[in-house]
Amino acid sequence: MSKKYNAVANSEKDVSQTFLKGAAILTLSMVIVKVFGLLDKILLTNIYSMFGDDVASMGMGLYSNAYEIFVVIFTVATGGLPIAISRLVSQNMAEKRYKDVKLIHKISVPFFVIVGIVCLLIMIVSSFIYVQLIKSPYSLHAMLCLAPTILFGCLASIYRGYFEGQRNMTPTAISEIIEAAVKLLIGTLFAYLVMSFGINSYEQTGTFLWFSFSSEAEAQNTVLAFSVAGAICGITFGSFCSFFFLWLKYRISGDGIPEAYYKNSIDARAKRETFIIICKTAVPIAAGAFVMSIGSLIDQIIIQNVLSNLAATNPEALYSQYSAYYPDEAFYGEAATGVPATIHTRLWGCYSSALTLMQLVTAVTQVFGSSAMPNVTSAWTKGNTNELKKSIETVIRMTMMFTLPMSLGLCVLAHPIMSFVYSDSAISEIGGNVLTLMGITTIFTAAITPVCSMLQGIGKVNLPMKLYTLCMIIKIATSWIFVSIPEINIQGATAGSLISYAIILALGMYLLVKHSKVTPDFFSTTVKPLIGSVFSSAAAFFTNMLLSPLIPQRISTILAVFTAIIVYVVALLLLRAFTATEIKFLPKGEKIAKALEKWHLIG
């Protein structure tokens, strides 16, 4: 029992180190996952650009539409139970109820299998309805191919929540990397093969598979729909591989709890009592996630329908802004052949491409939320106020240290970054306009996740649901108003997010302070990173402005980013924003920390 026993015992000594270790593992994996995801979209954009200047944004619009109903159903299926399992496992570990930990896992397996199968069937049925609501029939094939991901995601979540509750983030990290790698390789390969085969088949025979067409636009859209479905197949296969790895990990390595712990543990609760506890914990968490996703879905339906109505009632307004990027039929359709206008799907594709870059930031803070849950829960369960304060401050500081510079950087370098990532001119220009405001919005959307995770960690599992409900109501209303204005159109979706998330972040922080009875040091956790971020974003902006006329745009963008990083690190050191604990997690961290302490550059 020696080594494993001591490892588990030592892991509880310093909550900040535990949080940072878990966050470091998940952050590294999430960076890899998001880089793979970004490469996936870049490759898809370039693949579709090979077949026409206006094909890429249409393809990315279909790709994004496939996710919209999926996210809602996937959230219902996996949004509550993994977090509930993580919280309950952490709580029972803190209380030394190890037999209950094992029982929690045993009960969750059949429950999640049933949930996964039911939600898979719901996804298939609802796909046929949803494509009619958003007036995008070409999205159906991709949505159907995505449906099995729900089942595999449910099965994977059983093990992720269990391991995370024990503060073991490595299995989750590896499984996510496997999923992203398979998605990238298989998805892009299928997308290219289907697109190439389809276009060649139409050019040679006028048909594709069992389809015949009345116009070239109809043929292109149909082939594109199947190509996007091929890309989605990579996601489904990746989710299966992710689950299979976790299942093997559990079967081969066990649950990670020493046998001595089970022998000394008190008897587990009854199965019925444990099931009720899981439901009472999971349902409010799942409800909050569901409200957030269903609100986003409604928001997306409204945005695309408003844009579609603009194209029908005032196409000249959209034509005057975007005619340089798209053919006339994208705005007016083809009355002779019945092909509808597709400008709303194309603009949505530009928006979702910018959203992909924003999600690079929010993905990191989701990691902090996952890592914060077991640490905050453990401190709250023990009634240790000092440990709880330290844990909350660590989460807030790390969140702001990542969120603020990345968000402001996206804002000031929006167009250069979009041009760097996407070769399609429509996506880079229109998406760049979206990303400028989205950069500011990212601060609030990224920060709310760890705040809500900490509320759940201190037992206030109902509050995030109420916050998300209020957020979605405000977001839907403001987005509708702004997108309806022809001169603003797709830009209005970002304005709605900015207003709504800013409000609930302020409310969330107030509620966290109120219920935890802990007041964090906001100067060291937020103000210092903000000062450093302002200096770094200013450095990035002026570096790019001065160098872009002299050297290629991509090189100036890279140099601007590196300049921003250097300025940010120097600013934080001068402000003494880092702690020794955080520095020690870097390579050669012990030596660096000693040197910085000698120079009085860390707190």
Please explain how this structure is put together.
The protein has 23 helices and 2 strands. Helix 3 (55-78) crosses helix 7, helix 3 (55-78) runs parallel beside helix 9 (216-253) and helix 5 runs parallel beside helix 11. Strands 1-2 form a two-stranded antiparallel sheet. Residues 1-16 have low confidence and may be disordered. Strand 1 and strand 2 (211-212) form a beta hairpin. It has helices at 2-10, 15-49, 55-78, 81-94, 98-133, 140-146, 148-165, 170-205, 216-253, 259-264, 271-313, 315-322, 328-332, 343-382, 385-412, 414-421, 425-457, 463-483, 491-516, 522-547, 553-574, 580-583, 589-598; strands spanning 207-208, 211-212. The protein is mainly alpha-helical and 603 residues long. 54% of the residues are buried. Helices cover 82% and strands 1% of the residues.
Topology, pairings included?
Elements: H1 2-10, H2 15-49, H3 55-78, H4 81-94, H5 98-133, H6 140-146, H7 148-165, H8 170-205, E1 207-208, E2 211-212, H9 216-253, H10 259-264, H11 271-313, H12 315-322, H13 328-332, H14 343-382, H15 385-412, H16 414-421, H17 425-457, H18 463-483, H19 491-516, H20 522-547, H21 553-574, H22 580-583, H23 589-598
Antiparallel strand pairs: 1-2
Helix pairs in contact: 2-3, 2-8, 2-14, 2-15, 3-5, 3-6, 3-7, 3-9, 3-11, 3-14, 4-5, 4-7, 4-11, 4-14, 5-7, 5-11, 6-9, 7-9, 8-9, 11-12, 11-14, 11-18, 14-15, 14-17, 15-17, 15-20, 16-17, 17-19, 18-19, 20-21
- Tell me the distance between the termini: 38 Å
Strand residue content: under 5%
Please give the largest β-sheet.
Answer: 2 strands, antiparallel
Low-confidence stretches: 1-16
The helix-and-strand class reads mainly alpha
Percent range of helical residues = over 70%
Apparent shape: globular
Radius of gyration: 25 Å
- What is the count of DSSP helices, taking H or I runs of 4+ residues? 23
How many individual β-strands?
Answer: 2
Query: What oligomerization state is this entry in?
Result: single chain
- The overall pLDDT average reads 80
Order of helices and strands: HHHHHHHHEEHHHHHHHHHHHHHHH
Record the strand order, biggest sheet: 1-2
